[in-house]
Amino acid sequence: MKKYILAALLTATPLFAQEAKPLKVLLITGGCCHDYAKQKDILKKGIEERINAVVDQVHTDDKSTKPPLAILGNADYAKGYDVIIHDECAADIKDPKIVEGVLAPHKAGIPGVNLHCAMHSYRVGNPGKPQALGTPEAMWFEYLGIQSSSHGPQLPITITVADEKSPVTKSIVGWVTGREELYNNIQVHPSAKSLATGVQGAGDQPGKNNSVVVWTNEYGAKKTKVFSTTIGHNNSTVEDPKYLDLVTKGLLWSVDKLGADGKPAPGYAK
Question: What's the CA gap between 196 and 192, in Å, rounded?
Answer without folding.
Answer: 12
